[in-house]
């Protein structure tokens, strides 16, 4: 014996089943997309430490450009030009005074999926700015 449900009841049960399946499946399909949209393409912590004091740190994000950095668009632009390899920057090559006033710079974080670990001592602020430009 075959049991036949009225057509309207069958449609309601089918719709209810589809809604339940969609509700249960939605967290598994939306979380990765939401997480990917929330994470910036690059996230860097930049620390500048002059040997005579006055150290500062700032956070830079790229894609979207932002963070606490004073000029994210310019910093991200020069970093994009070297694919995030901070050591390859040479933004404004040229002479600097021969004054020994050392400055340490550290840049740590990630450039998209690549870890970034850069540390250098510059003879003075001029040499640092010529090499790293708007990043510092």
Automatic annotation (TrEMBL):
Residues 56-124 form the Subtilisin inhibitor domain. The keyword Mitochondrion does not apply. GO terms for molecular function: serine-type endopeptidase inhibitor activity. Pfam families: SSI. Residues 1-35 form the signal peptide. Keywords: Disulfide bond, Protease inhibitor, Secreted, Serine protease inhibitor, Signal. GO terms for cellular component: extracellular region. It comes from the Bacteria. SUPFAM superfamilies: Subtilisin inhibitor. It is found in: Secreted. Belongs to the protease inhibitor I16 (SSI) family. This is Subtilisin inhibitor-like. It comes from Nonomuraea solani.
